[in-house]
Amino acid sequence: MGVILIFVNLFIKFLRVLPHGVALAFGRFLGRVARLLLWKKTDRCEARCVKALGLGVTEAREIIKKSFINMGMSLIEFIRLPVMKKNVNNFAIFDDASKKILSEAVARGHGVILIGAHMDNWELAAMRVIAEGFPLHVVYTPQRNQNGIDDFVEKIRRETEGMLLIESEGAGLREIFRALRAGGIVVIMQDLDARRDGVILDFLGLPASTHDGAVKLYQKFKCPIIPVRYTRDKKNFSRHYVEFTEILSDRPGFGEDLRTSLELCNKIIGEWIKETPEQWFWIMDRWQFTLGKM
């Protein structure tokens, strides 16, 4: 374990001193290698892509190839977050229209829920929003610690000033309540498999167990819900865009029916994925509870 941690720390230091473009190129290389080494997972990703998007195998294979490359770049960016923080405005664009929407929601004083998806690089997007003076409470699912790697991941997230972590398990719900009552902003990743605790709804045309927490919190606190989208520029890989397009919970009837409101959340995230499928993490088994491994 000690040898592995020493190697990881040296690798991290190496990546943080590289020019950003060179580091991203290395990330693209890692993504290509991971796709080949994890060939069983790659096959399942391609099968999911075919079923969810109704594509042929050849087109799905190209999407998954690009998805692995995107994940490789996102990994490198995550490791380099402490370096990128100094010039985060150059890496992630957060326009005035999006700032206005978030500011309006915060001003209502009921707290705010941001729903996102595992696309592009959500940690970088969070750091960009934080840089504008909006502290975020990020709900995450703790993983089994392997050789200290999870401790390292949590350390980088906590080093991002303004990112407050809330575990989805245990006392996490009370912390979410506390944050919303104080007018805070809570980030929930809406595209995870909720397993036995979820509501079975359509996601990209397939039945999926969906987390209902965001809508239930809205019903309890009337905290505005805003979908947040983040995408990587397809030509300039170092540039990202963070977008808030609307306060979703302001739509007529939102929150009156749990299933209908959750369907709307799924639909929006599904539309994002269809527009840039290569930037979604297909390696996540979104439909495992309902359809098994595929």
Notes on the protein architecture:
By secondary structure, the chain is an alpha/beta fold. The strands form two sheets. Strands 1-9-8-2-5-3-4 form a seven-stranded mixed β-sheet, sandwiched between helices. The protein has a two-stranded antiparallel sheet with strand order 6-7. The protein has one domain (2-287). The protein has helices spanning 2-17, 20-37, 39-53, 57-79, 81-84, 88-91, 96-107, 122-131, 149-159, 172-181, 213-221, 258-275, 288-291; strands spanning 92-94, 112-116, 136-140, 163-167, 185-189, 199-203, 206-210, 225-232, 240-244.
Task: Please outline what is shown here.
With 294 residues, the protein is α/β, with parallel strands linked by helices. It contains 13 helices and 9 strands. Strands 1-9-8-2-5-3-4 form a 7-stranded mixed β-sheet, sandwiched between helices. It has a two-stranded antiparallel sheet with strand order 6-7.
Please describe the structure with a list of short key phrases separated by commas or semicolons:
294 residues, single chain, 7-stranded mixed β-sheet, 13 helices, two-stranded antiparallel sheet, alpha/beta, 52% helix, 9 strands
Which parts are unreliable, with pLDDT below 50 for 5 consecutive residues or more? Answer: none
- Coarse morphology: globular
Number of strands: 9
Q: Tell me the Rg in angstroms.
A: 19 Å
Classify the secondary structure makeup into a structural class: alpha/beta
Residue fraction in strands? 15-25%
Total separate domains? 1
Indicate the percent of residues in helices: 40-55%
Strand order of the largest sheet: 1-9-8-2-5-3-4
Give the SSE order as H and E letters: HHHHHHEHEHEHEHEEEHEEHH
Summed over residues and divided by their number, the pLDDT gives a mean of: 92
The main sheet comes to: 7 strands, mixed
Number of helices: 13
Report the end-to-end length measured between terminal Cα atoms.
Answer: 33 Å
